[in-house]
Amino acid sequence: MIIETINLTKKYGDLVALNNLHLNIEEGECFGNIGPNGAGKTTTIKILATLLQPTWGEARVCGHVVGYQSRMIRPLIGYVPDFFGAYADMVVQEYLEFFASAYGITGKERTKIVGDILDLTDLTYKRDALVDSLSRGMKQRLSIARVLLHDPKVLLLDEPASGLDPRARIEIRELLKELHRMGKTIVISSHILHELAELCSTVGIIERGELLFHGSVREITRRARMGPRVSIRVGDKVDAAAEVVGKLDPVKQVQVNDGTLSVELKAEVKDYSFLARALIERRLPIQEIREEEVNLETAFLRLTKGIVQ
């Protein structure tokens, strides 16, 4: 287990930011930490990054205990906060060489590593640009480049795509996919749920400091499924079709949207072919019928209450 928390609790006075958090992350996982604002996501990442001490409980990273063995943890992790730090008057290469030097990397080795990291993060053409002149997306890539210099085993990223335009988000996502393929263990907190679904092998839902769910995206969507939901496109006969379908016993609810019926069935229903038969018997046209998938965003809304501290 590369990351493990046991009864991890963090209090700020009477405010409980984390409440007995139990979390296990295997080596090589890309773990998505999701939850409403104020749920405890950033607190969790900061504790794992050794920047906060837990009130009680224990957090282990690569077998070392946060607080007691933080000096042994720091060389093994790379932490990217949700904002870019200082050093705006440096050029990109100088910025990376400064941090490489701080990690004890010197001489030709430093020059090679900085060049390799610039290539990996697609920043080579910006090596002589002032950090302050970079777009937010490029600054975020530079933040990731900085924490890769010492080749950490674990990457901790807090809202890495926050405030980025669509192209920059795609570039960050593809970079993180490449790092995952390279064997890095990644813990990422984000509100952009559809991107986490593409990127992460496992996710955790946290609310009011408590872990509500931990598992694969497929498991979380299965758990959130209240009953089968079927989409039926019927063209201009939508009102008549809604009336027919709404009277069928296995149907819980029918919603109408732009010529399409969204039909929620009772949980025990496995076969929805009766919907087509009922419409055909009434000579109502069916342009398309398919089962709707429950995505990560829908699962998140169903499994959380939107309550924050």
What does this entry look like structurally?
There is one protein chain. This protein is of the alpha/beta class. It has 2 domains: 3-223, P-loop containing nucleotide triphosphate hydrolases (Rossmann fold); 227-293, Lrp/AsnC effector binding domain/regulation of amino acid metabolism (RAM) domain (Alpha-Beta Plaits). It is 35% helix and 27% strand. It has helices spanning 41-48, 70-73, 92-102, 107-120, 136-148, 166-181, 193-199, 217-224, 238-246, 273-281, 296-303; strands at residues 3-12, 15-25, 30-34, 56-61, 64-65, 77-80, 154-158, 185-189, 202-207, 210-215, 229-233, 251-257, 260-265, 288-291. The strands form 3 sheets. Strands 6-7-8-3-9-10 form a 6-stranded mixed β-sheet, sandwiched between helices. A 4-stranded antiparallel β-sheet has the order 2-1-4-5. The protein has a 4-stranded antiparallel β-sheet with strand order 12-13-11-14, covered by helices on one side. Helix 3 packs across helix 4 (107-120), helix 5 (136-148) runs parallel beside helix 6 and helix 8 crosses helix 11 (296-303). 33% of the residues are buried.
Short characterization:
By secondary structure, the protein is of the alpha/beta class.
Top-tier CATH class of the largest domain: Alpha Beta
> Can you say what the CATH homologous superfamily of the largest domain is?
P-loop containing nucleotide triphosphate hydrolases
**Total domain modules:** 2
Helix/strand structural class = alpha/beta
Q: Quote the beta fraction.
A: 25-35%
Instruction: Report strand order across the widest sheet.
Output: 6-7-8-3-9-10
Helix % is 25-40%
Mean pLDDT: 89
State the major sheet. Answer: 6 strands, mixed
Q: In whole angstroms, how far apart are the ends?
A: 30 Å
Q: What is the name of the CATH architecture of the largest domain?
A: 3-Layer(aba) Sandwich
Write the H/E string, N to C.
Answer: EEEHEEHEHHHEHEHEEHEHEEHEH
What characteristic shape results from the CA principal axes? elongated
Model regions low in confidence, pLDDT < 50 over at least 5 residues? none
CATH topology of the largest domain: Rossmann fold
Counted beta strands:
14
* Number of helical elements: 11
Instruction: Using the CA coordinates, give the radius of gyration.
Output: 24 Å
